[in-house]
Amino acid sequence: MTASQSPAQTLQSFVTEIRNFLRDFPSQNLLLDHQEETTDRQFLWIIASVIDDWHQTPPHLGYININEIPRSYLLKGVVAEVLLSVAVLNLRNSLRYTDGQVTVDLDKYQQLMAMRQVLRAEYEQQKLLWKTALNLEMALGVTHGLHSEYFYLGCGCFGSYDE
Question: Helices (DSSP H) in the chain: which residue ranges?
């Protein structure tokens, strides 16, 4: 996401990145009759939901637009919610069929939820650490890290060590 992109371009670029991460392409979805598993509209709805989660999670930092949220964090949050959506659909459409010694099992719910749990935990941890750090920066007026008094010893503020 670049500053020169319009919000629509930013979102479309991010949807493409999500689709690449999930490898959700018609050519790779043989069991879905070469259809995308998740539509662009569904991705946009989930992106809005994750950004809303970002804003509702303390500390409340005011409005932060999509360009200010670290993209890798947002990606993990969105993919986790996409996996939840796919898992719900999979649960509703699960099928286990056995005929003799041939078994067909289309139930992937547990696998989807396990992967979602991993990504969601990473997203939550990164989100809280980033928001906490940003909150400290905003509270202290520091934008390049929190400095201790030892910082001033090496900056030349008090003369050289050799004097």
Answer: 7-22, 40-56, 71-92, 109-140
Domain count, the chain: 1
Residue 16 maps to a domain: yes
Tokens of 55: 């804003």
Query: Cα separations (Å) of 48 from 33, 53, 115, 158?
Result: 28, 9, 21, 51
Could you read off the pLDDT of 88-124 as tens digits, one per residue?
Answer: 988 887 777 788 888 777 788 899 999 999 999 999 9
- List pLDDT tens digits, range 2-35: 557 787 888 999 999 999 999 888 776 666 656 7
42 belongs to a structural domain: yes
Q: Which residues contact 122 (CB under 8 A, 6 or more apart)?
A: 76
Q: Is the pTM of this model over 0.90?
A: no
